[in-house]
Fold:
Amino acid sequence: MNMLDELELVPLEEAARIVGKTPHNIRDYLQRGRIAKYNDKGEKIARAKNGELRVSLKELRVFLALVNQGDEKHHHAGLHPELGFYGLPEYQRTKHVHRLHPYLGKFIPQLVEWFLSRYFEPDAVILDPFMGSGTTLVQGNEMKMHTIGIDISPFNCLIAGVKTAKYDINKARTEILDVEKRVANFSKRLAGEQSPTLPLFPDDELEEVKASLLAECNSQYLREWFAPNALLEMLYYRRLIPQYEYQDLLRVVLSRAVRSSRLVPHYDLATPKKPLPVGKEYWCRKHNRYCVPIDNCITKIHAYSEDTARRLAQFDKLRSDRSVTIIQGDSRKVDLKAEIAQTPIAGRLIDGIFTSPPYVGQIDYHDQHIYAYELFGFPRQDELEIGPKKRGKSKQAQKDYVDGIVAVLRNAYSVLKDDAKVFIVANDKFRLYPEIARLSGFKIIEEFHRAVTKRTEQGDDPYQETIFFMMKDL
Ligand SMILES: C[S@@+](CC[C@H](N)C(=O)[O-])C[C@H]1O[C@@H](n2cnc3c(N)ncnc32)[C@H](O)[C@@H]1O
Structure:
């Protein structure tokens, strides 16, 4: 048998049909490098031209057998078989507004759905005191529940607010595409294109406009992490935002584009260490070839404008009219009673919590979005983050962490119903949560252990996390 026969190469759709998966599943395996991309000559390829892509049935079967073994192993290790969400394709994990902006450390919407649908009824009031990018709020709203989210980071509140806001969908689309067009015209001007369809300003004023944009930029970070034209394009976009109604939405589109336009390697968008030199090739581990750092921002603005408008429209069809409340502040201190009093659910108590707090010493939540803080000048409150990476994982850091989470739960205690159900998703390596529950007046009812094989914005390394189900210890 020759090499080609042995690989059993077939087009993607056929492979999906033969192994009983969807084409989306197969694309997901390809994207995550679980199986290789081939052409019909049996050569491995990085990118397929139209109609060229083949996958190897042999490789696919080996991979699926390993997945099954893994599922079995997890099952025997006491991991919840349903909560691993094995085989859930990427496009579902990042469905509609969940992909409006990257966020390191978010949980997948299916995990929220799984618990909310089993433990709560429509109209329930759900609190997430560590709201992050708002996954609980989006899913809760979709399931006709009232939601309240708190986060210390203003940018996270902005993302969550933009995801959950109710829009005039046509207007939102028009605004997003209009700014995109104007920045695209500006970008052409920067590239020296002359055309009567580019009536932004007379040619001789271009230098003046550039100088005035740079004068508006007093961030050393922005000057270092972006190529010159990328910087000008994003500053130009920022200048246009006040002319529109959905300004926060435009800020999120721009932030997402800006994040992807930094002078960083493709394989390290989440935690880049330092900027790459402009225009210089580097070896790209993600694409397996030499790449050049991006030198503009408009490419990403193009990529994300239509995408954002489409995602908003998808969620608009699913969303409910239940209230969504977002509070920017320290969950240890926020006066929840007073805050709720100002919402459409004034006077109601909370039916449950679904949240994933920071874990000890893992992520600096403000810092991961430094580009947005630098671009928009949002005030930072890093020192109020619980368990930040910069404070490490020492015994003292663990103790401070326990104090922090206990303070949050105690603060929520008085606005929770007596039979409220509290779900806390934690990678509790140091086994701190039994003590946290006791110190804050709760008892653990059940622990669900799940394998995390695909967090939406984190690496692929599997680890375990626990969902602690607690209730008041009355
Ligand atoms: C693990 S993330 C939550 C992610 C969220 N589940 C999602 O899907 O996007 C933890 C969040 O807690 C926030 N946080 C940390 N300390 C806080 C504090 N003292 N008060 C309120 N939020 C805090 C961080 O800013 C971060 O967004």
About this structure: The first strand starts at residue 9 and ends at 10. The radius of gyration is 24 Å. Residues 103, 105-107, 130, 132-133, 135, 150-153, 156, 330-332, 356-358, 365, 384-386 surround S-adenosylmethionine (CB under 6 Å). Residues 456-460 have pLDDT under 50 and may be disordered.
